[in-house]
Amino acid sequence: MSRIGRLPITVPSGVDVKLDGMTITVTGPRGTLTRTLNDRVSVEREDGRILITRPDETKTSKSLHGLTRTLVANMVEGVTNGYRKPLEITGVGYRAALSGQKLQLSLGYSHPIEIEPPAGISFEVETPTKLAVVGIDKELVGQIAAEVRAKRKPEPYKGKGVRYAGEVIRRKAGKAGKVGGKK
Predict the structure, then answer these.
(1) What pTM, to 2 d.p., does this model score?
(2) Burial state string for 2-39 with b = 16 or more CB within 10 A and e = fewer than 16
(3) Does residue 131 sit in the same domain as residue 149?
(4) Does residue 158 fall inside a structural domain?
């Protein structure tokens, strides 16, 4: 039995879960999420908890058991608390600003980069070098944060670029210069 898959998902008050075949809809104070689940696992709801079970012990069913449980738990967590992915910008002249809903980045290119947030996602700019991607869908928040980071990945020599908060960049030594040798 999957150690993750067998754990029940507690549904907090104020969250409504609807099962329609293999489509699950979770509605909470922050919004609504819908996902179609694989038919190799079954989802049951009983007195404030959601249980995920698998019919057999095949490798595919075992793999989908824990995955499905985690996806549903992330949906419940997202509509109650939401998700936030903080990013940091390092570099001289590199900064972020909000222009309406759009995120405007100055990352050393000849032009500013504007990123339009998809539905359900918003940007927060705390300081010109600290920003966050906020939303209720964990998968979408991570994807948009990765797209923002991809606009200027941190380089290994000075560490300039956009990185996740707390991300450690492996640094390389630059040119050693001429030491000894011919004159």
Answers:
(1) 0.88
(2) beebeeebebeeebebeeeeeebebebebeebebebee
(3) yes
(4) yes
Range of the domain at 74: 9-80
Residue recorded with tokens 């956009």: 162
- Dmax of the chain from CA atoms? 83
132 strand-pairing partners: 86, 124
DSSP code for 26: E
Q: What is the pLDDT of residues 13-60, one digit of tens each?
A: 999 999 999 999 999 999 999 999 999 999 999 888 999 999 898 999
CATH number at residue 34: 3.90.930.12
Instruction: Record the tokens describing residue 120, joined without a space.
Output: 């359900």
Distances (CA, A) of 118 to 91, 137, 149, 156, 161: 27, 11, 16, 31, 23
The amino acid at residue 128 is P
